[in-house]
């Protein structure tokens, strides 16, 4: 029986840092589906995702001594994954991704939306599935991280390395874009909802 | 999705662990990250130091050439000030500050601050320390004296050795010595061309920025105006060394 199963992520990292590779295997098990899902949604493709995720784990293993166990592990590994997916996106499209991001220039008021009721959340997820590949990657990633991966604004800010206020404004614009595109391609469904 | 891909996720843990064994991958030691962080901090400090030095040098260059006097000559003086401003050093400094901002955003505290605020913060720190060094200490004057007797390393001799820039002939700006005063007409000795020539200065009839009141023969003056037919029609004139250095006096008092 694997004793590392009862430990939280940060405790496992401490074990890995001391040389316990099995604990790293447990971390891989815990995050493989999350990262695969994040990659598929972020890149809107199934190609190469597993290879990229495998590289993400290898990369995180090699750099695990830089992780501070007093912080949360989840944003750290998502950050590595985000960089890897953003690189893949850069290679695929010739446009540099977010080269100058004006959203990060000024402070935006930080407000988190009141938690949407379950029905609303399901509706957003449904809309996301339909139109995700039509939304720009900049907005796609915040929608995926917040609504599909259930991450907080602060965690997202750490993953994307932007101020927390920027997450709020980006998410607001992302929802507007989502609704606009969804209304265009499914006017009937939108009216019924 | 291919059949192969469908089966892959179940093997991801084994694949990763096998790859670690097969390729004999090792964790980078903690020392590596400590050294990397130390190197990054040293780079940040070095860039900040160079940036502060450049701002200090820009202010010194303006002060030693009396260009700050132009700011007291109204809008035309301000335009002339911009014309003589050492833009090349300023642009190099801006590039350094932009680079510094980019590096700082790699740190946790860096990306949490909006980019413009971080940029403004770095500019403010560089400018305040740079100005304080020039106005509050005599470090630049000491370096200049050493540069003049060639007792400095090469880059400093090049920089400080060429800091005094005589104004070009016909530029309308000159540092001259009064030879005679006749109401609103001054005759001065002009050394801009390398040899001493006598030049006529005509002052406006009623302008506090360019008046001969309080001027005496033998005074060194700073003049800005329009130069036509070897005559300078001045829009601003001030006795050199006549402007109080309030900040410097305050700092010296604090040091005492």
Structure description:
The complex is a heterodimer of chains A (193) and B (256). Chain A is mainly α and 193 residues long. Chain A has two domains: 3-92, RNA polymerase sigma factor, region 2, helix turn helix motif (Rna Polymerase Sigma Factor, Chain: A); 102-192, Arc Repressor Mutant, subunit A (Orthogonal Bundle), CATH 1.10.10.10. Chain A contains nine helices and no strands. In chain A, 33% of the residues are buried. Chain B folds into two domains: 30-161, no CATH class; 173-239, Beta Barrel (OB fold (Dihydrolipoamide Acetyltransferase, E2P)). Chain B is built from ten helices and five strands. Mean pLDDT of chain B is 86; it is low at 1-9 and 243-251.
Number of helices of chain B: 10
Describe the oligomeric state of these chains in a short phrase: heterodimer
Beta-strand fraction estimate of chain A: under 5%
Rg from Cα of chain B: 29 Å
What radius of gyration of chain A results from the CA coordinates? 18 Å
Q: Number of folding domains of chain B?
A: 2
Gap between N and C termini of chain A = 49 Å
Flag low-confidence runs of chain B.
1-9, 243-251
Order of helices and strands of chain B: HHHHHHHHHEEEEEH
What is the 3D shape of chain A? Answer: globular
Largest sheet of chain A: none
**Percentage of β-strand residues of chain B:** 15-25%
- Looking at the structure, the CATH topology of the largest domain in chain A is Arc Repressor Mutant, subunit A
> Which structural class should the secondary elements of chain B be placed in?
alpha+beta
**CATH class category label of the largest domain in chain A:** Mainly Alpha
Biggest sheet of chain B, strands in spatial order? 1-2-3-5-4
Mean pLDDT of chain A: 82
- Mean pLDDT, all residues of chain B: 86
């Amino acid at each position: 029986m694997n004793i590392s199963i009862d430990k939280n992520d940060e405790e496992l990292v401490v074990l890995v840092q001391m040389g316990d590779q099995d604990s790293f295997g447990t971390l891989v098990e815990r995050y493989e589906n999350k990262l695969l899902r994040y990659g598929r949604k972020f890149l809107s493709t199934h190609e190469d995702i597993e290879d990229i995720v495998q590289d993400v784990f290898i990369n995180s293993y090699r750099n695990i001594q830089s992780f501070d166990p007093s912080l949360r592990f989840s944003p750290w590994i998502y950050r590595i994954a985000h960089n890897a997916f953003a690189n893949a996106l850069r290679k695929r499209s010739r446009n540099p991704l977010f080269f100058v991001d004006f959203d990060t220039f000024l402070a935006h008021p930080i407000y988190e939306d009141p938690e949407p009721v379950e029905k609303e959340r399901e509706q957003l997820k449904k809309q996301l599935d339909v139109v995700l590949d039509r939304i720009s990657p900049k907005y796609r990633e915040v929608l995926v991280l917040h609504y599909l991966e259930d991450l907080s604004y602060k965690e997202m800010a750490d993953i994307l390395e932007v101020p927390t206020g920027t997450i709020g404004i980006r998410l607001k614009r992302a929802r507007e874009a989502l609704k606009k595109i969804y209304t265009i391609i499914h006017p009937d469904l939108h009216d019924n909802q | 999705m291919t059949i192969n891909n469908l089966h892959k996720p179940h093997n991801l843990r084994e694949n990763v662990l096998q790859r670690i064994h097969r390729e004999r991958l090792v964790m980078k030691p903690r020392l590596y990250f400590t050294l990397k962080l130390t190197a990054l901090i040293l780079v940040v400090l070095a860039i900040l130091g160079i940036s502060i030095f450049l701002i200090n040098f820009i202010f010194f260059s303006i002060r030693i050439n009396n260009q700050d006097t132009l700011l007291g000559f109204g809008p035309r003086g301000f335009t002339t000030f911009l014309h003589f401003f050492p833009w090349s050093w300023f642009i190099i400094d801006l590039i350094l500050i932009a680079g510094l901002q980019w590096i700082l955003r790699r740190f946790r505290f860096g990306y949490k601050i909006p980019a413009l605020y971080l940029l403004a913060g770095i500019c403010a720190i560089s400018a305040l320390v740079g100005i304080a060094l020039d106005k509050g200490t005599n470090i630049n004057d000491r370096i200049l004296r050493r540069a003049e007797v060639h007792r400095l390393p090469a880059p400093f001799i090049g920089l400080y050795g060429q800091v005094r820039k005589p104004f070009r002939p016909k530029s309308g700006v000159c540092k001259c010595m009064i030879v005679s005063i006749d109401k609103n007409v001054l005759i001065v000795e002009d050394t801009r061309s390398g040899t001493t020539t006598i030049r006529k200065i005509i002052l406006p009839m009623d302008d506090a920025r360019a008046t001969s009141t309080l001027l005496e023969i033998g005074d060194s003056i700073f003049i800005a105006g329009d130069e036509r037919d070897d005559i300078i029609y001045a829009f601003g004139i001030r006795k050199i060394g006549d402007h109080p250095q309030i900040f410097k006096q305050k700092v010296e008092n604090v040091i005492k």
